[in-house]
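Q: Joint fold for the lines below.
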Amino acid sequence: MSVALLKKAVVTDLDEVAARYPDVPRLIILKTDVQRRGVFYADAALGLLNETLHQTTGTHIFGARDGKTAVRPESLLLRDGTSVITTPTPLEDDPYVVDVLEGEAWLFDNGVPVEPVDYWPAPAYYSKNSRSGVPMKNIVSARPQRLNIFPYRYCTFWNNAKGCAFCDIVVQLKKGRDVLKVPAKLDPVEVGEVIGEALKEQGRFSTIFLTSGSITTGERPFDDEVDYFIALLKEVGKNFRTHKYPSQMIGTAFEKEQLKRLYAETGLTSYTSDIEVLDEGLFNRYCPGKTEWIGYKEWKRRLVDAVDIFGYGRVNTGLVAGIELAGPHGFQSEDLALERTLSEAEDLARQGVSTVFIVWSPRPDTPLGKYKNASLDYYIRLARGLHALRVKYRLPIDHDSYRNCGNHPDTDLSRVLPLWEEGR
Amino acid sequence: MINPLQTQMAELLAKPGTIASIATLNESGAPHSVPAPFLCLDESGRVVHLELLETSTTHRNLLGSIWFERPVSITLSGQNGEVLVLSARPCKALVSGPLFCTYYREVRSILGDADLAAVWLLEALQIRDETYLTCKAQEEALHPFYSHLDRLVIRK
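A: Joint structure:
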């Protein structure tokens, strides 16, 4: 008998929350819950995995919830095109189970089949090596419609032990370097070449994405990070006939002059800088490096500055949603956390900055790793709230949508934002 | 037993002169009908609809259909006056992968510089023959009270 069918069926949070919020698609609630609880792949599900056809884990900048580096599906697609970006999770933590039903992969909850899923398809270039002999997927990885560049797998906030409390980028760097032979810092020219190879596959990709750990050094703080991003984006840009191309970068909160350079000198079309948590006290506590170098209020101010450069609806910030409730320093209730978060998000939205969230996935090698993330009800209320702010302030979120990212339940809801520009 | 209308649907979809349209509902229940020039069947008998634009009303309505189980209607009109109307339900939106890329290339081979937002797979729940002559004969046989009498008058 398969792992999925070992347990007895019980009433699930999914049904209860779906009944409570009939305006939210059940598929998006399911995605959120899978991200919240993680997945466990049964042997039969792993038997369906074909490394030629499917993407497998190992390329990502962050680690898995079970702390293992093994070949598993990179992530999942639902039947509405929604990506479920989730990590393998130990069975004792009550994850969803991916198992096989009538020859197809399905999500199971407590032994009950919930939804069929597809593994992310492997792009053609994944089978090739770069000119330096590195597997191309270790230089540029993929999502269903996105090319990911993680050019620098270190974060200098960790130099004085001030990395973010939920982040395992440095631990993962070591694993990637030792086990997977992923380069810590990428050569921009080689990145450009791999992007060129990836783009030979017609219809496969619709955006370029970059993110890395922060680099504090330079004439001005973070100048080296900006210079490196510019070098990368210029090499990527050599593949396109237009100066600008659909792209997103998650970087540190740069100064306005740095942002101007990024916009003017490269094809970058949007800008994201993750504030992680929308509360100054928790930001100071959980993001000490960001606090030391920039600070909460300044981070917000720089996001607003970026709207002048990248345009309305092309700047946003990300939250690691759930850390605001974790441990003894978190909000004492979900209502309080939601009120604070949405209030701060509205302050940004009225100035043209959108807020998106990822479901916090507590990782074992992090200070917050021992805590649980929030309830499904909380995440759905947060998704509705952030989507409602985009409606209220007429903020498009195309650059961080289900196609261009796929990691935000709130932007999944925004697939049906009004089309203000078209008058619809 | 194979439904003869299923066979007729497949034949109509295979004929180049067939005109197809797809009607969807928005969140208020307002219908929206547009031509569906790429409609075909896949090997499982599902209807394949290619949606070219991410922001099209039909694409957004189909998303609403798969999210909230709103019905979809497809009309096939043959060159000889035959009409089939399908009640359908979207079962999958392909946005990536080999099949998506195949259709992407096909669309571009026909339209030139075009894009593809999604390959929608729809399951036909019901097929109705709405061919005028068929419906007319049926109505005359089953509902004779709805005929105008002048049609029955002896012509001199």
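Q: Anything notable?
A: Chain B is about 30% helix and 30% strand. Chain B touches chain A at residues 27, 54-55, 57, 60, 63-64, 66-68, 91-98, 100-101, 103-105, 108, 116, 118 (CB under 8 Å).
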